[in-house]
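Tip: read the tokens left to right.
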């Protein structure tokens, strides 16, 4: 009897979940979350930089000609109570490096960050090295983190006898979790009565849709769009005690961003990327190629041995010109991106030919999209 009751409850639960899934509002086609198209103004990461030394290298460090490495090492030893003349230092196991890190928003004292270490001198490899204590500064000149620890280099370099081998980039490494946050960036989140969302691609339509989607999600007019790059969201009194939860709910709202018609062309690689909103009016396209081939067929007349004759070279170049048949094709407009691709593929055009055709169509005024050359 108990088993039957459990089964009936399980069936009712499955039916309820299925009905909830069917009745839930579906996200619009091409929709994206607010957190994917916008960022909260003022909540961002900060760049840190510092100068340090990497020791423990196996003879692959900076050479004697790199004066700042020797001076830095002499200064380090002097701070430790060891007086050494900089001119007497001749080591190849030390390299001067620049250390960079990214301090994320709301990072707290004691948090661990990854540090990127890059060689400054003429060191050939940082493999096996250890980064010494390095303060990391912000743009205001204050120390926000301190980095130290063994490095991980995803490559190697070896040379000898005039030959060498190298894999990846051995003069750049990473200290995983090697930077410790020492100073926090203040941000009073709990006292906010509103916040701004900065759109990554400012657009009037996208800003309006974002504000409308947020208002529809919470059932009240909380969001406004003062300009095409900003959406201001007011915090309701009911969410003042849980501001983090309210902002998380705002970030999860689905919005269908408006995308401008754009065609991206890369002539170096022959890459062509076209958006779904690209349309072409009725136009006639003719494309053909002219190939010229020059073949050298030289004949050499060699005189007999011990004679006074001279070697004579007779040049007989063969020049051939082949012009492919150019067919005039009418592209009925307006066409979608799928129809455009099928039509151009039927003409047998290559990616580089496609770039030239699209530029010509744009010049004729039949392409309703922006061409962006990379």
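Filled-in amino acids:
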């Amino acid at each position: 009897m108990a088993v039957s009751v459990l089964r009936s409850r399980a069936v009712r639960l499955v039916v309820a979940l299925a009905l909830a899934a069917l009745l839930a509002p579906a996200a619009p086609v091409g929709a994206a979350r607010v957190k994917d198209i916008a960022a909260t103004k003022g909540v961002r990461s900060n760049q840190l930089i510092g100068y340090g030394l990497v020791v423990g290298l196996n003879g692959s460090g900076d050479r004697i000609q790199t004066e700042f490495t020797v001076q830095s090492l002499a200064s380090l030893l002097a701070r430790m109570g060891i007086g050494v003349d900089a001119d007497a230092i001749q080591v190849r196991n030390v390299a001067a490096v620049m250390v960079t890190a990214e301090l994320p928003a709301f990072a707290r004292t004691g948090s661990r960050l990854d540090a990127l270490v890059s060689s400054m001198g003429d060191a050939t490899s940082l493999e096996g090295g250890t980064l010494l204590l390095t303060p990391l500064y912000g743009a205001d000149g204050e120390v926000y983190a301190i980095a130290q620890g063994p490095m991980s280099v995803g490559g190697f370099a070896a040379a000898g006898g005039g030959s060498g081998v190298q894999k990846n980039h051995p003069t750049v490494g990473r200290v995983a979790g090697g930077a410790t946050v020492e100073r926090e960036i203040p941000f009073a989140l709990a006292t906010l009565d509103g916040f701004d969302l900065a759109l990554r691609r400012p657009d009037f339509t996208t800003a309006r849709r974002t504000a409308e989607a947020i208002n529809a999600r919470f059932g009240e007019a909380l969001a406004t769009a003062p300009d095409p790059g900003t959406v201001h969201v007011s915090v309701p009194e009911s969410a003042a005690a849980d501001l983090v939860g309210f902002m998380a709910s705002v970030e999860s709202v689905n919005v269908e961003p408006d995308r401008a018609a754009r065609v991206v062309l890369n002539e170096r690689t022959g890459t062509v990327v076209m958006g779904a909103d690209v349309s072409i009016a009725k136009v006639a396209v003719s494309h053909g190629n002219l190939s010229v081939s020059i073949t050298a067929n030289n004949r050499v007349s060699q005189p007999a041995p011990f004679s006074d004759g001279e070697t004579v070279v007779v040049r007989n170049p063969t020049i051939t010109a082949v012009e492919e048949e150019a067919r005039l094709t009418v592209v009925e407009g307006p066409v979608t991106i799928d129809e455009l691709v099928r039509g151009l593929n039927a003409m047998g055009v290559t990616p580089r030919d496609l770039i030239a055709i699209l530029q010509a169509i744009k010049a004729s005024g039949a392409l309703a999209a922006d061409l962006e050359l990379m």
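The two ends are 72 Å apart (CA to CA). Residues 262-302+312-373 form one domain.
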